[in-house]
Specification:
Chains A, B: InterPro entries: ATPase_BadF, ATPase_NBD, Euk-type_GlcNAc_Kinase. Two copies of one chain form a homodimer. With 334 residues, chain A is of the alpha/beta class. Chain A is 46% helix and 19% strand. Chain A has two domains: 155 residues, 2-Layer Sandwich (Nucleotidyltransferase, domain 5), CATH 3.30.420; 133 residues, ATPase, nucleotide binding domain (Nucleotidyltransferase, domain 5), CATH 3.30.420. The first copy, chain A, has 13 helices and ten strands.
Chain lengths: 334, 334
Amino acid sequence: MNGITDSSKRWIGIDGGGTKTSCVIGDRNGHILGASLTASSNIHSNSHHHVKERLLHLIIDVMQKTDVSYDQIEVIQMCLSGCDRESDKHTVRQFFQGTEFEKKISIANDAIAALYAGTAGAPGIVLIAGTGSIAYGLSKDENNPVRIGGWGYLLGDEGSGYHIGQMALKSVLKSFDGRGSNTLLTTMLMEHFEIQNIQEIIPIIYGDQFTRTLIGSLAEIVMKADESGDTVAKNILKQAVLEKCLIVKAAINQMDEEEMSIVLHGGLFSNDRYKKMFCIQLNSEMNTKLNIINPDIPPVAGAYILALKQSNIPISQKVKNQLREHYQPAADRC
Amino acid sequence: MNGITDSSKRWIGIDGGGTKTSCVIGDRNGHILGASLTASSNIHSNSHHHVKERLLHLIIDVMQKTDVSYDQIEVIQMCLSGCDRESDKHTVRQFFQGTEFEKKISIANDAIAALYAGTAGAPGIVLIAGTGSIAYGLSKDENNPVRIGGWGYLLGDEGSGYHIGQMALKSVLKSFDGRGSNTLLTTMLMEHFEIQNIQEIIPIIYGDQFTRTLIGSLAEIVMKADESGDTVAKNILKQAVLEKCLIVKAAINQMDEEEMSIVLHGGLFSNDRYKKMFCIQLNSEMNTKLNIINPDIPPVAGAYILALKQSNIPISQKVKNQLREHYQPAADRC
């Protein structure tokens, strides 16, 4: 095989998000040899021309950095946001037609990268709580992935940062109208937006180009208000957590396993308060034995794990340890 | 006074909405002598140049139709959507600077036209339930109008057609996910949108240029599902009605009157089912004596009533009868 030994073979993992796209290259043992980064690769929010350029450049860049030849590449596993349907995958596959990469490309949704970063390639459910909200589950047979939620800010996103932020805004306006309780959130949001009265929030929200992100970022303020004992904030978080549990329960029901790994992913789970409330509520509602996982490696490493799986390489404890070690700076291991 | 007798004096009323602007001209006794119509005059959703042209043309058109001279015009009362703040009113006033109309212009929000179409110039609350949702109240002293709700589709609009349509969409998607009850709404919405599976609704909703109107129009389907005994639809309407009652109660509390006229306005109230549910709920919750009014004249006639009021002309029973007669075709009076 062109003088390529097992130890010189390479696997590439790509995690494509809404704002950035990460790439790593590694060997069969979990050694990450190089990494590269570019802008968003979502084909629904960028021109196809740009996404094609970015992905090609990303792969060539990581190969050049690590001095890897085309022949050494076994699999290029792309896990891309916005790549849900067969037609989306076909679009991305077309980008590589006629290139040396054509036959090495494998395409999946970015949720799998986040899942495998937590389970190291084992079945489970990844629960995403960022600006949006979705659960994505893979059973043992890996066919028929389960998707719950993820219907976007107008029709879904229950339990997301957007949902929490929107409930906060509605609450302060209801309070202003005299049809809702007083809440600390009013002064906190006025301070946050540097406004003198709460109505001034209207042109800010409707006038912002990135309304979804702006509203999603307010979840942090709701956490602080709850911590200060505000009842309105507490009820908002309670409702968000209940909605999030509904999503997981629906996913678990569809998968029908006796034990289940639940991988937590997304900005909202980096808030300890929200994570704790969620875990307590979920455990209290479920009969299934749950193994709740906070990944210690990033989704791009999950994409790389999937790349190894495509070559039927078992994800041994050794591989997992290698990956973990790569992402934990030496200082942390003292 | 240039030979202008009381009986030759004229008053103009204009009701400017988001899609069309109506105009009438009448005498001091409630005789409507002519009418004219043009497109939207909302200064926030049209170029100022267009609004200026439309309003000027509208007035000149109604005057020409009725052979009325500048000298005969006493007041031109404009009730315009999107004219909330003093700065908005100033903008519209500028359109008429240097014209013969300059000193005859009076500007108010379009909610007052809808209110006066119901109360014939008396105090009360107008409750608007169309795509959006707002309550607007005027007390006896007519100062400090009360506004509750109306915070738009992202932050408010509780109890509106949009709110009902959005709850319907969320419900069918939750049902699809297995985290909500089965509902007739699923097949009804699939038939409505001519789709084979409910997920196809996502690109339709997010891809539509007029998402708010599209979602608002689904309220009609929820009414039908409720009529067929669907529990999910019933709960959606119940929740919408409760939110709508909260809005009225907050308005009533701020106005502190012993008796209150409540004028119902907007597409949602033309649905008897919704109107009945709302009236029963509101009466059951309130101690204040309520006089619920379904206007029998259009808002533009309310604007004309306000024009007469600006000249201190009492809105006598004779005036009211004249207006009512004008808007009820002879056949209805058999």
